[in-house]
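Entry 12.
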Amino acid sequence: QALDAFSKWIREQVEKNTPWNDFAREIVTARGSTFEHGAANFYALHQDPLDMSETVSMAFLGMSIQCARCHDHPLEKWTNDQYYGMANLFARVRGKGWGGDYRSGDGKRVIFTADRGELIQPRTGRPQPPRPLDGQPLEFDSTRDRREYLAEWLTAAENPYFSRAIVNRVWANFLGVGLVEAVDDMRLTNPPSNEKLLAALADFLVEHDYDLKKLMRLILVSETYQRSSRPVAGNEADERFYSRYYPRRLSAEVLLDAFSQAAAAPTNFPDYPPGTRALQLRDAGVESYFLETFGRPERLITCECERSNDPSMKQVLHITNGDTLNEKLSRMADAEKKIEPNRISRLLERGATSGEIVEEAYLASLSRYPTPDEESRLVEVLDAAPAEEKRLVVEDLFWSLLTSREFMFNH
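Predicted 3D structure (tokens):
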């Protein structure tokens, strides 16, 4: 129920287009029951001040401050004193009720703040004044929720880290490569590929009251986003400056949903209603060999690096002869088990011609019509197939399209 509340809350914020600063503020200052106040579940996985501060820094500033936990950060300006000042902002956050760990128990906890409590800095043996990284310190005896003070600094228009971090994440989501790469490594010693562009986009977001949809529209209508992925003389080696679009494999959840939609054969997930898409799964712990193989993150840490898009032989073998795609293509209707006929079954049952089969296969998988040459050659193959082997040939047609680079890659 706690997991459902968190997922529902996030989806509601996206649906309402809640400004990013309001979204972050509600997350950081969340309190109450994790069943009734979805945002409070942000404090369910990491429950000590050190982890809380590191999570907030990674999620909303795009930077890891973990190295400063033991010593001054070697690659950034953050000191051990600043680290413990930041962490002390969470020293009074409490959770009432066990609720289990992140995947056991009911997850029910009540988040609140205590009246007193300080985090001791091991190096000095005393607490650091609570302060947001390079912000001003808060008095030890202040009775306000220290997280509210942090949220004010975090979402302030003059805070350069906050707006740049989300702009970089949105840019990387659409373009495949962040202006700062990796997106969770926005330190001073890792400058952006285009500082003027990043600064201009961050200013745009602030000027438009942190409206992420307006930011997305600005990026999507840009010439940069609409460039072809085909290299031309001189930009073949470019992987950083967006002289062309960089092809990338679909993420694990998107690829599985794409297979399901193209084959008209939904994936069934344990404890989820029929028709649930992989992108709708609330818990990364839902068992799926396909999603695991193609790099779904376990969501144990707050870092984009947890997701892997690296190719592997395991992926090749599973696509070639694994159960996931082959089962979707060979799936037959079963009234007793309430299994609907897949796309291939429907085509054959209505007696579609070879030309109609080829055309629908291309539209369903590649969202385009086949070229005249593609269509004529494939129709010839389908027409030559013996009646008893017709379905297998059609399955092979779909398989060849669904395993092609054109299907599996954004390009």
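Annotation: The chain has a mean pLDDT of 93. Residues 162 and 379 are 55 Å apart (CA to CA).
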